[in-house]
Specification:
The complex is a heterodimer of chains A (116) and B (116).
Chain A lengths: L2 E3 L4 E5 L4 E3 L2 E3 L5 E7 L5 E7 L5 E3 L5 E5 L4 E6 L8 E8 L10 E2 L3 E6 L1
Parallel strand pairs in A: 2-12
Antiparallel strand pairs in A: 1-4, 3-9, 5-6, 5-10, 7-8, 8-9, 10-11, 10-12
Chain B lengths: L4 E3 L2 E4 L5 E6 L6 E7 L6 E7 L2 E4 L8 E4 L6 E5 L8 E8 L10 E2 L3 E5 L1
Classes of the chains: A mainly beta (116), B mainly beta (116).
């Protein structure tokens, strides 16, 4: 069965500093991995995904994530945090299938707080 | 509109009542997903449709929950004999038909259900 763990409920960062939000996964076969962001009272917004290829994936708003197969991790990173990055971040995994669909399994979420 | 539309945005009902939540996906998206999100938790998978048929309903918690998508577009999530524990935000997402299921999900802003 697929599962995702986000070990930190909350991450606090000063504006301008680099940020990392951690995610580890468990899935049979090669995973498809996603990061979503949720602002207060809003729906989830897609940030980036890893399907295959380069282990470093770049996404929206300057975010990137690094796929590490040996550590089964997909940590979200940004070189310089902004106060506007403060939000709830979710990692998700989907097992690869050929019938063009399939559920995403989400982690519990990590609240990112960026202070000026 | 261009995004996933969910109605109502807020629903307050009494224990034991019947509730319907509607989702209008992005035009042309063949896959449609329902998730439930409780406060402080990640989205929990309920069911997903490919076209008109439910491809995976393993997340429906019990037989009080049912979902339909009769014409392969709009979907309705139906909850019978609501209980206080059903209170949550119900999220709908859609996804285009992509090979191998690599496409990301596009989420609506959710329907907040409160059962008194």
């Amino acid at each position: 069965a697929q599962s995702v763990a986000q070990p930190e409920d909350q991450v606090n960062v000063a504006e301008g500093n680099p940020l990392t939000v951690k995610c580890t996964y468990s899935v049979s076969g090669n995973p498809y991995l996603f990061w979503y962001v949720q602002y207060p009272n809003r729906g989830l917004q897609f940030l980036l995904k890893y399907i295959t290829g380069d282990n470093l994936v770049k996404g929206s708003y300057g975010f990137e994530a690094e796929f590490n197969k040996s550590q089964t991790s997909f940590h979200l990173k940004k070189p310089s945090a902004l106060v506007s990055d403060s939000a709830l971040y979710f990692c998700a995994v989907r097992a690869p299938i050929y019938n063009q669909g399939g559920k995403l399994i989400f982690g519990q979420g990590t609240e990112l707080s960026v202070k000026p | 509109g261009a995004g996933v539309s969910q109605t109502p945005s807020n629903k307050v009902t009494e224990k034991g009542k019947y509730v319907e939540l509607r989702c209008d996906p992005i035009s042309g998206h063949t896959a449609l997903y329902w998730y439930r999100q409780s406060l402080g938790q990640g989205p929990e998978f309920l069911i997903y449709f490919q076209g008109t048929g439910a491809a995976d309903d393993s997340g429906l918690p019990n037989d009080r929950f049912f979902a339909v998508r009769p014409e392969g577009s709009v979907s309705t999530l139906k909850i019978q004999r609501t209980e206080r524990g059903d209170s949550a935000v119900y999220l709908c997402a859609s996804s285009p038909l992509t090979s191998g299921g690599t496409g990301e999900l596009f989420f609506g802003e959710g329907s907040r259900l409160t059962v008194l």
